[in-house]
Task: structure prediction
Amino acid sequence: MEEIGHWINGKRVAGTSGRFGEVFNPATGEQIAKVALATPAELDAAIADAAKAQLEWQKVNPQRRARVMMKFGQLIERDMDKLAEALSKEHGKTIPDAKGDVQRGLEVIEVCMGAPAMLKGEYTGDAGPGIDLYSMRQPLGVVAGITPFNFPAMIPLWKMGPALSAGNAMILKPSERVPTTAIMLAELAQEAGLPDGVLQVVNGDKEAVDTILDHETIQGVGFVGSTPIAQYIYGRAATNGKRAQCFGGAKNHMIIMPDADMDKAADALIGAGYGAAGERCMAISVAVPVGDGTADALVERLVPKIEKLKVGPYTGGDDVDYGPVITKQAQERIKSLINSGVDQGANLVVDGRDFSLQGYEDGFFVGPSLFDNVTPDMDIYKEEIFGPVLSMVRTKSYDEALDLVIDSPYGNGTAIYTADGDVARDFAANVNVGMVGINFPIPVPLSYYTFGGWKKSAFGDLNQYGPDAFRFYTKTKTVTARWFSGIKDEGAALNFKALD
Ligand code: NAD
Result:
């Protein structure tokens, strides 16, 4: 069986711990590889080498670092098919969706080609007599990226691009469920000219993460994953004095007003609810129609569309709509949450629990499910299901729908479908969620904006990618400089005072 190790100092190396994680092809249920889980000693060595490499990398001028990003982007495009194939095999998503995963990461790398502009400092000449004041952005040093299984290319690229182009070295700890893509990306970064040691990909589990969080050399931690782990990592990293931004889970609502185009709203719910088997932090998992007429019109449109969805393996051809979920445990958890919805009184309009695919009986598939008449006290409403399950909560008014979103503990994404500009504007202004779509179901901002949720969907400061990421991965140094020619000598000054 294939054994996946780490990427250290520009080479694939085997792990030494003797501990391994299992990597599956979720479509067949077969274990296809085992991934080495790093020891603290392996991390220590990788971090020490990264620290040495970073000292040289930060001296490479910003434009040359940006050129590495440019080449990196070209190589990602060159290898798009290979990356998508490897990603789908471990993750289960369809090939077009895997290409989208790579593409949305690539777009962040494209913005990092402009890193020199993002890294410019500020300057005030003659801030006082003979005094100039300027600030510069300097890299943090060695930072860590800890990433989830659901976007094996995009999220590592969100972390690597800004961190590396800002002059940091990075220890990337990808999800142990999907370890292959990150190492392939590291190989491409090396081919693009990234010096060895600047990007170390270390596979591992909690032991590796805790070593990173406690390691004195690590200056910043960028995490993406579930809310409990995000909160834990934020707390431990912050206690250890590290800069941390930790993005968590979600429960994203889409409000559908009675004046919305119902066909478009239904299509949006199908794409955002069931795409990638619902394993997206920006998936719409709660549909919130305003008025029973709106709800009935939606159910009438959704049911035939859901029944037509083709669930299958990534090798199943272009018409497969979504694939399996990531593990057997995830499959069982989703089905047990569907059971809880039935037990707690929701109306299961489409039941995906018994879905099975001939020839793939051991695959981790879950058929699409639709619940109507869900109420906020039910587990299917409260839990992030992270599966192909859409819950409908009926409301009587826009205000009731808005309050539902406002009261949700999560605040990653949300959307409204309406033809009324005033309502849309009010929603965008008043909802307490980080990313808002107006007639747009998955409002992932483009790479020159920034990505981040509110409430329990994000802990720490600043967003991912875009200008915020350059702020996160740099620290500001401000210099006050005085030159004396032509300046009256005032002798020693013992008091603070305003500058002339
Ligand atoms: P996860 O929290 O299980 O794992 C994420 C990372 O944390 C992995 O690298 C894993 O190895 C590590 N980890 C897991 N348990 C740990 C522990 N006890 N201690 C230390 N480290 C630990 O998340 P996942 O299942 O891989 O990903 C799905 C989750 O990620 C969903 O909740 C989803 O909403 C969220 N997500 C959020 C965003 C966002 O930007 N907000 C984006 C994508 C995914």
